[in-house]
């Protein structure tokens, strides 16, 4: 029996049948190392038929000293980390190669599966989280491929969390061997016999020869698109990073936009708001993170897409530009600003700042966006402003009169006039005064169209590095070619 040739199985097998299929494959063989929630994954393999066909070794180094002796000391004395998980799967993969002769087992497809988790605490204050990963071969003696993911538990009982962890672990091992040709399908299959409200994947990374053509940023985007998680992040280096690690106990300044492309206006908003934010007495620059956020709606574009309105090349172009300028990027499913604030408030009690233009502030004070809330706009604003939040407001120019509009002369609907006045008078809205008036004439959509039309004037409206990258990498131009063929 080979590892990958059986297509007659049903699309969604039971967990027991998945384990049985793996156990009966004479070539798939590996180790299980599980820390923190019992041996929940390997338990399923023991209960299925022929466990000796798959299990070379299983262990649970639950005691920290034992764990350190096997996998090494952690500098911060932490155990539920991606670094610990990587040490586990690397160590176990090396050990199986060392102890099982390739001469004796020339056709074996070795793997090492591991998880390190913390389930809900007795006080039910922290729901729990963990890392799961597998290092595996799909061909004998092949370089190993990896799948590593982070989960957040949402069930209120440790036993239930353990059950969910075990199911997802089986799904991960099975998917690695039988469903890894398409990582999007693999992500979907991780939730076989699980609901998304029980366990949330908020970070996933693929690596190795099986996934040589996979861009992990697209896989992060997939998590948000499929409603598996609400937000994902990647670093200036373009790597997927765990939001909780980035945001924990940090001051956070956020600039939302489409960034298609980044313009001089965006850059000026960023630089001036950062200066004002860092001048706050309680803001330590060393404990501050600045986030450039795009929502799914920001990403939807015309031209070629994969059926959901999002052009993946266009998305990667924007991500590349932001990362190249040293920014941390967040993709979210938060349409309303108060949801962004709620999300950040889960990770920090420090200062929060939102950077926006006057037109965005007008939208925030539009009652129709809050009709789904029983408390309407007051409920939304209670969630948004009860923390240490400030809005850094960039002015706009009235195209008809040329008047510069800021918080002082902005006109809002009479029904919310007093509410607006309350927040302005209490220092929750801070005008960015050191702006460049000529930048107020820059409209990102017009800049984008200028790029498509070959109008070289666009180069004067964006930062130098942005212009250089757009030209060198032919960014945003594939859509033009596809549109001209229609």
Automatic annotation (TrEMBL):
<dbReference type="InterPro" id="IPR014729">
    <property type="entry name" value="Rossmann-like_a/b/a_fold"/>
</dbReference>
<keyword id="KW-0675">Receptor</keyword>
<protein>
    <submittedName>
        <fullName>TonB-dependent receptor</fullName>
    </submittedName>
</protein>
